Amino acid sequence: MEVAEVTTFLAGTTPFDQLDHAQLASLAGNISVYYCQNGETVQLSAERLMIVRTGIFALYSDQQTLLTKLEEGDFYGYQLLLTGLSDNDKLVCEEDGLVYWLSADAFHQLRYQYKNIDIFFQRLFSRRLHQYKAQQQNSRFTLKISDIVQARKIAISGEHSVQQAAALMTEKRVSSLLVEQHERLVGIITDRDLRSRVLAADLPAQTAVKQVMTAKPHTIDKHAYLFEAVQLMSRHNVHHLPVLDKQQSYSMITATDIIRSQQDHPVYLIGEIHRQTSVDGLEHCASQVSSLALTLGKQQVPAHEAGHIITTITDALTQRLITLAQLELGPPPCVFSWLAFGSQGRMDQSLNADQDNALLLEKEPVGEVAAYFAALADFVCQGLARCGIILCPGNIMASNSALRLSLKGWSGQFAKWVTSPTPEALLKSSIFFDLRVIEGSKGLFNALQQDILARTTDNALFLYHLAQTALQRTAPLSFLRNFILEHDGKQKKGLDLKKRGISLITDIVRVYALSAGISEINTRQRLVQLANKGIMDSKDTQNLSDAFDVLAQLRWDKHQHDLIQGHDVSNLLDPNVLSGLQRHQLKDSLTVINDAQSSLKHRFCRDL
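The structure corresponding to this sequence follows.
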């Protein structure tokens, strides 16, 4: 073993990069080197730290579930060294490589001597427990009662008078009280009870609480999920639920608490959007989207669902802006359809999406018609910009007069793109083929969409050029499966998950969908239909769908991280921040894209 080579490697590996050269050389002297062959099972029983030098190693649970994949710089064995407990894992070499083994004595001496290194492995162990538990359970998390109510037991005895109860409610500024007898919950009394059962019944103020309380009320445990409280309240038409902790009174949850906790829930937010009477009000609603995103992240809502929710909110903002515009401008002079392209059209919008929209008109945009819809488009586009959906840098917006056309005008435009598909034209126009009506006439929109599909289905020349456009960019993966990083112009390097990942899959799938006359435009749904119709092999569609989900999830996680850190939301990801499993999944996803592009080229780009 070359001690100098091991020392150099350790110097570039966290957490050993904190050591000086002499300390690294001493550490290297306690390391042995082992060569592993593809398919070999690594011996894990000994108490020692494994450091992957080269190769790929798959880690399986005792249930043969893939837990993670270890690559260069990853560790294994620290869990046994830290706890003395074995996980009965199985580690299989998937790609020939070298591993370094650090003896248990040297590992423990390192921990005791350097606190930062000890903290590193303790945190690594904690993350491992969390990640593996989440992978094994594969569960969805929602808010629990304890997330929104604190321990606050405001109680009164049943022997006290209703006047005393009212005074206590006023003092504590609550609308209900727990009623206890010998520290045991026996009922509740609410301000509504005081009105309907005392004042309305003309009972004296000295009436005992136990005479008018709700006895044996429905209760809920503080560890129950919030939706269980909603279900219980709805089923029994109650607005107050005593919260218990180990059968003891803990607090009270009310319908108001639930509404307040769900103010950043999409259903609530969308309802609020449609109640606004000004752009200022819409702007305030839109400001809650970041909070909503963090809540969705906390509840582990997957990226494709989050994209659907964010798009639905953008749709609601657009619809309400159109309504407000008409209140200001008067009724429209003709039937129209407000169209969305790109990510909003596909219902997979992200937090940093810009506008891509247009107007489809029943009549030609001249005179009064042109003036009205120019004003409406400007009102809506500027309103969306105020709400955080930025103006399109490429001017693909209804405020652009070139994108306010009649059915005849749009049909002619698509005919031009289809019959004369120059690379430059298709590069700029490909997102127009992912269109959806947001507001207005669906009949007008359907007529346009059917016209488009009639022109593109089995159109070899158009599909050839569209496929060529989809092949202009490739996945950022080298021949040796290393990531190819790029600069963002701000001295940051990484992988652009949208341009060099998600969009590549979208482009590939669009070609197949248009070739088959499929009207669905959501990428995941297009893949389902392509498999069902036999247009693509089901294994290929599943691989593309899985790759799309991995990339979308990485972007969604990155966006949430940016929000938490107070940074601008960016699609540029540094792969070094990922776990071994995530890096492996990312590489697999990019490989799937490369394979899919090869298949696309073979199918659509042969000589015509």
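Residues 129-142 have pLDDT under 50 and may be disordered.
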